[in-house]
Amino acid sequence: MQSEYDALIKNGTWTLVDLPSHKMAIGCKWVFGLKQNPYGFVNKYKARLVAKGFHQRLGHDYNETFSPVIKPTTKVVARSSTKAEYRSLAPPSVEVAWIQTLLFELQVRHTAPVVFCDNMITVALAHHPVLHSRTKHMELELFFVREKVMEKSLQVIHVPAIDQYVDILTKSLSPSNFTIFKDKLRVVDKTLEARAVFVFFKSRFGAASAFHLQLSVNPTHWITELAPEPRDVYWPFFSESFTRRWISKLVVVLVCTTFTVVFLIPVVIVQGLTNLNQLEILFPFLTSITIKFVSQIVTGYLPSLILQLFLKLVPPAMEFLSSIQGYISHSDIEMSASRKVLWFTVWHVFFATVLSGSILSMLNAVLDPKSIPGKLAVAVPAQASFFITYVVTQGWTSVSSELFRVIPFIFSWITRPFTSQDDEFEVPSTPYHKDIPRVLFFGLLGITYFFLAPLILPFLLAYFCLAYIIFRNQFINVYAPKYDTAGKFWPIIHNSMIFSLVLMHIIAVGIFALKKLSLASTLTMPLPVLTLLFNEYCRKRFLPIFAAYSAESLIKKDRQDQNDATMTQFYENLVNAYKDPALLPIQHSPYNNDSIRSPLISQA
User: Fold this and answer.
1) CB of 366 within 8 A of CB of 360?
2) Contact call for residues 589 and 110 (beta carbons, < 8 A)
3) Is the full-model pTM beyond 0.85?
4) Angle at Cα 504 formed by Cα 502 and Cα 506, nearest 5°?
5) pLDDT at 440
6) Cα–Cα distance for residue pair 455/288, rounded to 1 Å
7) In whole angstroms, how far apart are CA 198 and each of 284, 576, 579?
8) Nearest CA to 139 among 86, 80, 92?
9) Is the four-CA dihedral 417, 423, 428, 434 of positive or negative sign?
10) pLDDT tens across 415-440, in order?
11) Mean pLDDT across the stretch 484-488?
């Protein structure tokens, strides 16, 4: 050490001056090494005093560099790929260290950066350095990179050559690798047609005209759809062809049908629980139950509770099936899931429960339309007690749980240790595909049972009053809409009400015929026809309003936009509004690391 220090003084390597007030001193460090002879014995102990120059910033601490002392032996030429790779590892590590220092000064939390290298020996040297005669010329770089790896402020990871996308710019590749790298870098030939694009118009009327025009002789070749809101876009099916979407829709229909048929098994089991005599045949030990209260629980409350647990699986399953059906917006997926859940509930909870018996008897009832009114007239009044219990267990319980949000609270409590306090809180949105079908089904029960079992009306009235109070509070204080559906859920509600009215008319005709009230039955028969005529009028008069805007309203709105000074900024923001999440930068989760928070430059 003394000889090295004397040599530095003799050569006048530095000049002692006062430290300027606006400058920061950089530290020095001794680097020790062993020089061996060809036989592996120690020939000389070496000591070198080096400055931590990587703490300096170009343009801030210095503007030019020079070396006052140079020795010919310091000019090293790499004779192997390992030498070249390892020497090239030092400059990016220095840049990363400077960026870490800058982020620390700006108080920006960040994780340890990662430097990828496609040479496995170089990665091994960074983690497990072997200082011998063949690597002595790399001591400075080795010391710096190794220091950062030991501090856990830098990670050196091997990356396969197949993932080195930059090779497309520096190396000659095979046609297959060239194509793969080009696709990974999303290089697109401008002469080729894009599979799907967003086309912006400066007027609503122009966009509507392009939407309604057939752009190609083959209507399946060019398909135009109105673009949803940017946050409402569902990207997986955005660029899929008409054939692919049609096949997806067909597959979803088949899967929904299969799921509906298979779900009859638990429904048949549940509806068998409502008849204690059938249960005693299957389970003889139930014959010993003589307590009336216990038998009422088995036949009343227990079936509804079991059915409710099975039905909890239906909304997530229908939402998943709708997501692979070919829709390009989350709102369309949720509306499709709402329709599926509604008719699934009507079929399984109402018809499968009412038409008690085996699956074959249910199918026979459907295949014989003439007998449906008579069978419904007998079966529907018999299940009044079950549906009263269903309103209490499913309706009142669901509304109460909606107020307290017990399940989201438990989920948040479980995931809290795995989330950071800096993570942005996501305001929940209304689960339309769960709530709307439930409310509409209770409306169907009220319409069909109001003259058969009036006792159900107070329970339904209590449910609707409680639901109004709670959901009004949730809409105002809890939920935040993610997108604007423009009232497109109203046709679902309208169709459900029309179906409930027609079903009530059919049951009334069957009951009047069963009681041999021919006059009442005859007077009731025109009611379904009048209801369907009213439905057809509504479809012609009101449904087009939910499907598309009128040209009159579009032109009126365009004229108002011509005098709006903010439209110019709106058009500029529209260009970057729609971005595929696959093209967005990756967001890393921050974590607490003392080695990252500590400054890279030591205090003098």
Assistant:
1) no
2) no
3) no
4) 70
5) 92
6) 32
7) 67, 11, 10
8) 86
9) negative
10) 777 776 666 677 888 888 888 999 99
11) 79
